[in-house]
Structure formats: C-alpha cells, structure tokens
Design goal:
Rossmann fold; 44% helix; alpha/beta; 208 residues; five-stranded parallel β-sheet; 7 strands; 21% strand; two-stranded antiparallel ribbon
Length: 208
C-alpha cells in the first residue's frame, strides 16, 4: 500500500485540529490520524503541581523517537498502539489507541516539523498560520472548558513557556512547510486544494 503522510503543524490554537477533522470527515476510513500530543513523555512519581510546572512546549517534552518508530511500522503495513495523554492530569494515561495502516496518514502537532527525521518522512507538510491573539483566546477557551484549567494557570503557562517556545521553535519550523494555510480548516480554498491533492493520491492507488 502506498501511504501518503501529511504533516499538519502550527501554533497552539491555530486551527490544526479543525483542518485535520475536516480531512478525516471527508475521506473517512482512508485517513488515520496520529497526534504528537499523545507522545508527551510520561512522568512517574511527580505531583500535579510539579507536573504543571514542566515545559510542555519544548521539543524535549515529546517522545518523538517513539512516534518515528510507530510511523515506520505504519508505513510498513503494521498496526500500532499509540499512547494517550491526559491533559487534565498532565501525564500519560494507561490507555492506548489502536491505529491501522491507511492510504493517508495525518500527523498533527505543534513541533512535528522541528525534528528532521520525522519531517523527512512526510510527503506533504502543512503549516497552519493564525494570529497570536486569536490562538491565545482559543487556547484559553479550550483549556478552561475541556481540560479543567483555571484562567490564571492558562495565562501563566502561556507567558512562561507557550509564547517563548512558539517563537523559538514553532514559528521557525514554518520554513519547512510546503503549504502555509491561514486560519486552518476555516480556509475553504486551501482545504479544497488539499482535498484535490489527496484525491489524486487515492485515485492513483485505484489505477495501480
């Protein structure tokens, strides 16, 4: 099976997940999704307060080597069980997600273009670019409503690590992108172009 690997990167709250969800909805079972967020490193024996002070926006926070290993297996036609990260406790859960190989695999995350080995495994690299104030408001809304965080904790984390790490690692990785999409899944023109590219890949599989 000829697998197309699509990387979707961008800052927190940029619209990566909206774009990913719309592609997944359009192509159904032809698309599998792997989230870099699920590959945050596990931390044993630390309190919630200690965990909350860690820098989750630095490349070292992720077990990217495991993600590369899983992607290698998927491209070889082998299923994998990827970890699941629980944002409400700042740590991995004991659950896993079973992912079968598919004709299109989407990898989503803020720092997936930062690692060259991972980046070189992608056929299409998409960077979702959205204004910082919009991203911050989306992050506040998401973290308070979905992850049980307080407004003060979200703002403190944003100023302490999210913003500086975005400027140091995420924003520069935009130079590695093949396509820069403004506003993510809300950009209908860009979405249509990406869909057409994926459809050509899937049509090629049928013809072969």
């Amino acid at each position: 099976m000829d697998m197309m690997v699509i990387g979707i990167a961008g800052g927190t709250g940029s619209g990566k997940t909206t774009l990913t969800d719309r592609l997944k909805k359009h192509f159904g079972d032809n698309v599998s999704v792997v989230y870099h967020d699920n590959y945050y490193k596990a931390h044993e024996g630390m309190t919630y307060e200690e965990l909350s002070r860690l820098n989750y926006d630095h490349p070292d926070a992720f077990d990217t080597d495991l993600l590369i290993e899983h992607l290698t297996k998927l491209r070889a036609g082998q299923a994998v069980d990827c970890p699941v990260y629980d944002f409400t406790v700042h740590n991995r859960s004991d659950k896993t997600i079973h992912i079968e190989p598919s004709r299109v695999l989407i990898i989503e995350g803020i720092l997936i273009f930062q690692n060259k080995t991972l980046r070189d495994m992608m056929d299409i690299k998409i960077f979702v670019d959205t204004d910082a104030d919009v991203r911050l408001l989306r992050r506040i809304s998401r973290d308070v409503k979905e992850r049980g965080r307080s407004l003060d904790s979200v703002v403190t984390q944003y100023l302490a690590t999210v913003k500086p790490m975005h400027e140091q690692f995420v924003e520069p990785s935009k130079r590695s992108a093949d396509i820069i999409v403004l506003e993510g899944g809300r950009n209908e023109v860009a979405l249509d172009m990406i869909i057409q590219r994926v459809e050509r890949h899937l049509q090629g599989d049928k013809e072969a």
